[in-house]
Amino acid sequence: MKFIKYFSLMKLSTKNRKKNTFIHLFLAPTMLLKCDPTDTEAGIRLLEDLTTNANQVQQQVLKEILIQNANTEYLNTFLDGHASEKLFKKNVPVVNYEDIVTYIERIANGDRSDIISAQPIIELITSSGTSGGQPKMMPSTAQELDRKSFFYNILVPVMNTYVEGLDQGKAMFLLFIKPEINTPAGLVARPVLTSYHKSSHFRDRPFNKFNVYTSPDETILCSDSRQSMYCQLLCGLVQRSEVLRVGAIFASAFLRAIKFLEDHWRQLCLNIRTGQLTDWITDPSCKNAVSLILSKPMPDLADLIERECIGISWEGIIRKLWPRTKYVEVIVTGSMAQYISTLEFYSGGLPLVSTMYASSECYFGINLKPLCKPCDVSYTLLPNMAYFEFITVIEDHDEKMQEKVHCNGKSEQKNGINEEEWIKSKIVDLVNVKVGHYYELVVTTYTGLYRYRVGDILMVTGFHNNAPQFRFVQRRNVVLSIDTDKTSEEDLLKAVTEAKLIIESLGLLLTEYTSYADTTSIPGHYVLFWELKKRENTEQLPELDLIVMEQCCYRVEESLDSVYRRCRRKDKSIGPLEIRVVKHGTFDALMDFCLSQGSSVNQYKTPRCISSQEAARVLDSRVVARFFSKKVPSWEPFRIEANKLMSDMHRAV
Ligand code: AMP
């Protein structure tokens, strides 16, 4: 691996070429750029150009979006048809999903007029955020897939800058698709990666030395996640000597694959030994694609894999099974940071590489130092992807004020200033953020989102040329997350409120609760700590009925949102929810602990989620009984009701 001076070399040459570069970028008809992933030098040069000219690129992006969409129904209300940046900043409100959901639902229900975008919305991207219990849906256009391809392509030169020889072998990337639905009007709604992997941009990608995967596309595109996982691991094992990198999008998905391997390695070895695919793989495309790789019995290979897997400890198993692997590519920032130590255990010290920061709304930024430690990861937002703005988050108080606007959707007066004005006064452009400051990300996309609050809090760690770099701090309002689920304090409260009805009918009271995401086993699961008492004023702990408490666990799960339930039921990426009942006085002990750590007595509120291990110990040492959900919660693809359209249309007007 060469830790390169490439960037500095490039910087020098960029300086010399600065004028030409600028002309080159701005001669492009649009900010829809192309990048040849095999041309490292050109790719790095393009990145240097984009980051050096971040401000100009952002201005150009906003101009393009406004010219394209000023006459859409939504923007016209604020701009009166003028593609003016000034009017945009003055009149266009900063919004949450709830503010625009009626427009999205009209699109879902087949209104083809230029509601939010002059370009046709070809599909809706379902995000892991929810609104009213349903996944949020983000608009997407055909052009957006080109933008995503650009984004994926530009990751390649960055990686090649740091790791040599990636063209000498294959990548074992475990990629999966998720269920999708058709809206009443025939638009497809699906998660962003499913959209990309099913698109011709992925399927017909031009072959190059850097995109050779061990997984045949047929196995990635198999809708049965178990068959998909089995076949991808089998192909990865058969081609083990060629594998130079392994990974998945999120750390949770990669660890799930390791767990699957732990459960299935004997069967996988048997298949490799005999050259015969197990009979429960019934998907014809998978069978066909795998048969081309598992083309003959390979007993020596099976012996070798078996020897590694049969060992008592799986520490360093990745290196053992795929000995040429140079790194593990998985996102380990944000809520995925909880998996770092487990990944380190299995990977045997291989670098953990978080390459990108993206969402259903838009792909945001890339990590220019992919081999850095997970705690040092910063993402540089690519200024050509969207128009970025940032709400300054100075202190807790500011967040609270922002939440207030978010929750009740009304404009309130703060020191005589209209709340909306107040938020706008706290907004800064991409190039004006300050190192060490915290911000909430706001995007204006090419696909019809204008000044949309993504909900992520970021901290500026520095600049690459003129483009700021951000550490992902947290998702606003999310307390629990195991996989792609994002459970807020409100979601949790709602679910606990439902479940406590069961015990209340039996004369028990839930006096306090908190939670945490237990990821010590795979898959991880939600743990709730409950302090209970009898209705009569007694400290004596009530007798707990196993069936009743298991019902409580299940009721909580049933009441959580559809992404949680999909992860539980379809993806099996979350394990059964657990309730740990703690003895009387435990939450007082938790308060004492928090106060000892500096919380203020006056402002103390029971944390609804705990992240510190010490706090967990305070609770765990007082657990008197543990219960698990025995049933898997229901899940079915959400429906968009056509008849909702009319009432929504009235509301939207
Ligand atoms: P979704 O819209 O469901 O695709 O989720 C997107 C969200 O996932 C983002 O807004 C972030 O909160 C989170 N996310 C995506 N990429 C990263 C990353 N690299 N690090 C931390 N969180 C991320």
TrEMBL record:
Query: One GO term of the cellular component aspect?
Result: cytoplasm
Alphabetized Pfam families for the sequence = GH3 (PF03321), GH3_C (PF23572), GH3_M (PF23571)
- What are the residue boundaries of the GH3 middle domain, all occurrences included? 379-475
InterPro entries to which the protein is assigned, alphabetical: GH3 (IPR004993), GH3_C (IPR055378), GH3_M (IPR055377)
Domain GH3 C-terminal spans what residues?
Answer: 490-613
One GO MF term attached to the UniProt entry: acid-amino acid ligase activity
- Keywords, alphabetical: Ligase
- What family does the entry list? Belongs to the IAA-amido conjugating enzyme family.
**Protein name as it appears in the record:** Indole-3-acetic acid-amido synthetase GH3.17-like
Organism field: Olea europaea subsp. europaea
